[in-house]
Specification:
The protein has 358 residues and is an alpha+beta fold. The protein is built from 9 helices and 16 strands. Strands 3, 6, 7, 8, 9, 10, 11 and 16 form an 8-stranded mixed beta sheet that branches. Strands 13-14-12-15 form a 4-stranded antiparallel beta sheet. Strands 1-2 form a two-stranded antiparallel ribbon. A hairpin with a 2-residue loop joins strand 7 and strand 8. It is globular, with a radius of gyration of 22 Å. It starts with 6 loop residues before the first strand and ends with a strand. The structure holds ligand DP6.
Length: 358
């Protein structure tokens, strides 16, 4: 029996034929936090849309900032409610969360609806709000609030159904998501890379995020990757290129070889965007400042700083560099016309429970 739905028979009410008086155990509110992650080998395509199974593996770095803090409390409400960044969420976001909670309820064998309160530590209107940290935090908070304790791979598989990249944010530091082979997706899960350095400690790199636009991205990743798969003549070539990048990225991380990892990260991002740009109609996430920031990263590199870029489904650039170079890289990117802000992020921990209240 799971805690939130547990019922206690009140002593002395066990008369035959009558149902025992029952007292609901108060809902447990569980709060979890998760950092977002930035893929260095990108996920861009699904082998199964319903279960959200990726067409390839991917590899990312979980960050210490740009995360989500989510509280879930199952209660006696008539429907699920979502408060996102302090305001009631729209129907689409609430429906996505509610469908996710249905999986948790089915697993915990409970029927109660939930109040979900979620806050992103992202500069408002930057377009950086992350489904990765969002569904990782939700998976952990919702399962615990429902009385379930899942193993990290089980949590990763659950988070993946919410959003593919969320499977990686269950883990800290460098994490690799497996494509998996099984139809039920049980092997399409992430794990923390063991090769995080010779002494087992995580590798202290930095990601400098250059914000190049305000507002939400042009097209959400889910729709954009489906459109790329359907219409881009480059899609198959993109998918075929990923396994070699995964091998190279793993080896670079094991050797703590930043230039080797950076080269893989740049080509993975560029190939992903090339496949999207070749879709019909084209998906173009970049703006003039994105291109100017790419040029600045390359100029910094020519001048001797090991720094490499990656770009997700949006116009912002993320620059991978050594910790001692991060301030100078941030200053150089802030000077690029169209870059409004820079943030420096370090490797961060995996999803964790921070509060559980009866
Ligand atoms: C460009 O994980 O947001 O950030 O599974 O459809 O929710 P869904 O997609 P999502 O896609 C992430 C795309 C990416 C690359 C990556 O994070 O690997």
């Amino acid at each position: 029996m799971t805690l939130p739905d547990a019922v206690i028979a009140v002593a002395g009410t066990r008369d035959a034929g009558a149902s025992a008086a029952r007292v609901q155990v108060p809902a447990t509110a569980v709060t979890a936090v998760a950092g977002t992650n930035i893929a260095l080998v990108k996920y861009w395509g699904k082998r199964d849309v319903a279960l959200n199974l990726p067409a390839t593996g991917s590899l990312s770095l979980t960050l210490d900032r740009l995360g989500t803090r989510t509280t879930v409390a199952f209660d006696d409400g008539a429907s699920d409610r979502l408060i996102l960044d302090g305001a009631p969420a729209g129907d689409a976001a609430t429906a996505r969360v509610s469908a996710f909670l249905d999986r948790v309820r089915a697993r915990a064998e409970i029927g109660r609806r939930a109040l979900v309160t979620s806050d992103n530590s992202v500069p408002t209107a930057a377009g950086l709000a992350s489904s990765a940290s969002g569904f990782a935090a939700l998976a952990l908070a919702a399962t615990r609030a429902a009385g379930l304790t899942l193993s990290p791979p089980e949590l990763s598989a659950l988070a993946r159904v919410g959003s593919g990249s969320a499977a990686r944010s269950i883990f800290g530091g460098f994490a690799e998501m497996a494509r998996g082979e099984r139809a039920d997706g049980s092997d399409a899960v992430a794990h923390a890379l063991p090769e995080q350095g010779p002494d087992g400690a995580s590798w202290d790199v930095r990601l400098v995020i250059a914000i190049t636009a305000k507002g939400p991205k042009a097209m959400g990743s889910t729709a954009a990757m489906t459109h790329t798969a359907r219409t881009s003549p480059f899609y198959d070539a993109w998918i075929a290129s990923v396994p070699a990048d995964l091998i190279a990225a793993r080896a670079a991380i094991a050797a703590r070889d930043l230039p080797a990892l950076g080269v893989v990260a740049e080509r993975s991002a560029l190939r992903m965007h090339a496949a999207a740009m070749a879709a019909d109609p084209a998906i173009i996430y970049w703006n003039a400042a994105t291109l100017a920031a790419i040029a600045r990263v390359r100029a910094l590199r020519d001048a001797g700083t090991p720094v490499f870029f990656t770009i997700d489904a949006g116009p912002h650039l993320k620059a991978l560099c050594r910790a001692p170079d991060a301030d100078a890289v941030a200053a150089a990117l802030r000077a690029v016309p169209g870059v409004s802000e820079t943030l420096i992020a370090a490797p961060g921990p995996g999803a964790r429970v921070v509060e559980a209240q009866p």
